[in-house]
Amino acid sequence: MRPIDTVGAGDGFAAGHLAATLTDGTLQDRFDQAAAVGALVTTGSGDLIAMPSARELADFRAAHTR
Length: 66
Fold this sequence. Notes:
- This is Carbohydrate kinase PfkB domain-containing protein.
- InterPro entries: PfkB_dom, Ribokinase-like.
- Pfam families: PfkB (PF00294).
- By secondary structure, the chain is mainly alpha-helical.
- The chain has three helices and no strands.
- The protein is globular, with a radius of gyration of 11 Å.
- It starts with 8 loop residues before the first helix and ends with a helix.
- 21% of the residues are buried.
């Protein structure tokens, strides 16, 4: 995946962090998820269209976890 539009990256980061916080994620998990959502949002145009689904996020994180 390549970035197309950086609009919404910060919103995606915040949304990912908040979602992980609400599900009692660890601090590391919160920031990992925040970074993943922020990155995925840049793969589409605009700030809402590319917001990933839970499945897309899980697949992305599984593919990019060390």
